[in-house]
Write the structure tokens for this entry.
Amino acid sequence: MDMDYIFSLTFTLSITFTLSIILSLILILLGLIHFNWVIGGKFGLTKSLPTKESGERVLNPKKTDSAIVGIGLTAFGMFYVIKSGLLTYNLPLWILRYAGWVIPIIFLLRAFGEFKYVGFFKSVKNTDFGKFDTKFYSPLCLIIGIFGIVIQLFK
């Protein structure tokens, strides 16, 4: 067997494994933060919701909303645990194929935003949320999206 091929294969497996584990940890952690809000925790809550410049919240999610998002993020995280190969679970091939593209697309769309309160191209930037979104949330969503696409292309 050609050594270049072996190196290429090893590198590809290493990259997809590493990125899958990183994504699973990030997504499960984000899911746990949302579950914290479900049980009444306040960690990061005030800077996690977009507001108008007057300070009025744009979104007022219920605990059920946080639970749904928490379940989704945790499921996405588990998807990447399965993609890494650490956990074997026989998902149908179509789920592996489509979810592997849908998840990064969701996060890329979130990174670009809706052009008013959320994303790189938002117009309301000087609120607490706007500042955190610019520094942390949108870049994190972009990274999640890029990592997910890299995994799909190399796997």
Remarks:
- The first helix runs from residue 3 to 38.
- The CA atoms of residues 4 and 10 lie 10 Å apart.
